[in-house]
Design goal:
With 367 residues, the chain is of the alpha/beta class. It has two domains: 136 residues, 3-Layer(aba) Sandwich (Creatine Amidinohydrolase, Chain A, domain 1), CATH 3.40.350; 222 residues, Creatine Amidinohydrolase (Alpha-Beta Complex). It contains ten helices and 21 strands. Strand 17 and strand 18 form a beta hairpin. The radius of gyration is 23 Å and the shape is globular.
Amino acid sequence: MDFIYKLRKLHEETGLDDIVIISPENIEYFLGVPTIADSVIVLYSHRGDLEVYVPILEYYRYRDMLGKQDVEVYAVSKKIKPNDARVFEGEYKDLFEKIGTGKEKIGCDIGYSSPLINPLREKLGKKIVDISETITGYRMKKEPWEIERIKKAIKITQNSIKALVSYIQEGITEAQLAGVFEHRARQYNVSQYAFDPIIVFNPETSYPHNIPGPNRLRRPNLILVDVGVKYQGRCSDLTRMILWGRPRKEWRRTLEAVNEAIDEVIDKAEPGMTGEEIAKIAIDIIAKHGYGERFIHGLGHGLGVVVHEHPYLTLGSTTKVEPGVVFTIEPGIYIPGEFGIRIEEDAVMTEKGVKTLSSSLERIITP
């Protein structure tokens, strides 16, 4: 797939001399190559040339994966210089100095993290024009092929959750169930998980982020399963609650509150609403049920090259959620040290409103 057209469009839109991309996730977005090493840059020049500079150990992978596109790949290396490699002889600071020579304005994604930010600032200084927000806008609005890959990632995640459910039995540990999910996902040729799986029992469910451990399953219990995979460069992120044994009254109350909050967002969120406006829909429902102080995180986030990206559906977010934006809806209620409830759907904003992408798997599962 030709990803270079996006860089051409970015260059035309900004009108800058050159564009330098240093964020690993942005590089993966623009090139379609999984970025493993941090020290990689993409240079798109005003002449229309596209050059990629990588550490020597990454040179052949990038060269071969980008071989069918009009891209020049270089290894940044002072000492190791294979005869069959294009080599920039120097360090990254030398490369940035060369790039800046004779230029006045160079677009850079310095709003994202990279170990190359300091040498970039040192050598380009006032020539830098931050284009991070422009790139964020590109990444937020998904193209149809991106949505299809996210849907595939969701399907794989759902099937892997179903496999996990079939293994549930009294005495099994959180870590063992996490292993079942990971094993099944790999059978679908998933190369990466979107994040380390969160599969926990009470009272560990009361902490929004947690790690599967040696805790053994006993009745009655709640099992929180928060998992996702990365399929052909795009992520999924789903959370389901599994009831093990007869649920207690307060568990049912909180499950009803979280379910209602999700339904209200799906019914009432509209294109052009801000992240805060959408978040407030769920916040108001949770508060109506008496759990306002127990909803301690944002409502959701964007999905794409990485599992957490813009837009963020949180209080204070002024980002508008336009058609084409894929995001999560994940309200939660947490009673510290006792139990927690979180359910998460993946959705896309359309011209008509919210379309759920993950509704084929029930939110509350009873084995």
